[in-house]
Amino acid sequence: MLSKFVRGAALLFPGLLAGAFGYGAVNVLYAFREVPLDVRFTFHIALMRVNGPVMQSLMGLAVLSTLLFAMLSPRRQRWVAASAAVLVIASFVVTRWGNVPINQQIKRWRADALPADYTDILRRWELFHFTRTGCALIAFALVITAAIGSTTADSHRTSARVPASPAPGRR
Question: What's the pTM?
Answer without folding.
Answer: 0.84
